Amino acid sequence: QEYTMASEERFSAYFGFTEKEVDLLFARRLSRNVIPAASAHIIQGSKFQGQANAVTREGLKGWYDGYIKSAEAALQTALTNLSYCTVRAPMDGTVSASTHSVGNFLNGAGAPVILATLYDNSVLRADFYIEDASYLRMLANDNNRSMINYDSIPVRFSEQLPHSYAAKMQYISPDINSSTGTLQLRASLDNTYGELRDGMFATVSLPYRVEPHAMLVRDASISTDQLGSYIYVVNDSNRVVYTPVKTGDLVNDSMRVVLSGVSPDANYVTDAMLKVRAGMEVKPVLKK
């Protein structure tokens, strides 16, 4: 029963012989004039080699203690094999559904068996493309370009999310795709709130210049004639004034950058555009 108890985890920490017990066992061995067969390797090479009745006390103690060492090695091997049965993820993330159930036999000797796929959604990357003409405009515009923060690029999604997101520029392709005429760019964004998923479509608003004196006007309020773009401004007398403007890019699909022609404190017409005429008197209702 000694080996069985030593190999069990609940006994192995306490299994062994005290000095008094070794003395008692040694006395019994001497009285029987018998050496255990397995003790030959312990006393081999000593002065007692070849003498069947010449076992030392320390040799006997070491022979019994060998049970403990063997049991500890077997226990460690069993724990190592058991650890292979537990799959631990190397990172936090979202796991896919598994096609295997508990109790299924999986043979991975021929080819690896995929139990599930773990997605690390803590940081996502957005791959997008710009036309080569847009890239040239970025290079040609020196208007306060150093003020642009490419570590905080606005990112929007098809539906409004509870939180806003900004991306950090990571990569610009060294060449332009000749078949599409586009340049690949890549930006990364932190998925702090866990709302984003791999494969989602996003709109990246990439800034390429700064216009300190520009203002935003609703794009639907801007009309065009032979002279160019214009808006209807309401003066202090509540009369409509035809005002030519110089426009820029579209922002957020609804606002247009106005570079010149109107002051920031001006009130302009936003509704009933087909009924408004220059010079007519209106009753303005201010909207923000």
Secondary structural class: alpha+beta
In angstroms, what separates the terminal alpha carbons?
89 Å
What is the ordering of alpha helices and beta strands?
HHHHHEEEHEEEEEEEEEEE
User: How many E-type strands?
Assistant: 14
Question: Treating each run of at least 4 consecutive H or I residues as one helix, how many helices?
Answer: 6
Arithmetic mean pLDDT = 79
Assembly of the depicted chains: single chain
Radius of gyration: 41 Å
Major pleated sheet: 5 strands, antiparallel
Taken as a percent bin, the fraction of beta residues is 15-25%
Can you walk me through this structure?
- The protein has 288 residues and is of the alpha+beta class.
- 22% of the residues lie in helices and 25% in strands.
- The protein has 6 helices and 14 strands.
- It has helices spanning 2-7, 9-12, 19-32, 40-43, 57-83, 132-140; strands at 94-95, 118-119, 123-131, 153-157, 165-172, 182-190, 202-204, 215-218, 223-225, 228-234, 240-244, 246-251, 255-260, 267-268.
- A 5-stranded antiparallel beta sheet has the order 3-6-5-4-7. Strands 9, 10, 11 and 14 form a 4-stranded antiparallel beta sheet that branches. A 3-stranded antiparallel beta sheet has the order 8-13-12, with no helix packed on it.
- The N and C termini lie far apart (89 Å).
- 8% of the residues are buried.
- The model is unreliable at 5-14 and 37-52 (pLDDT under 50).
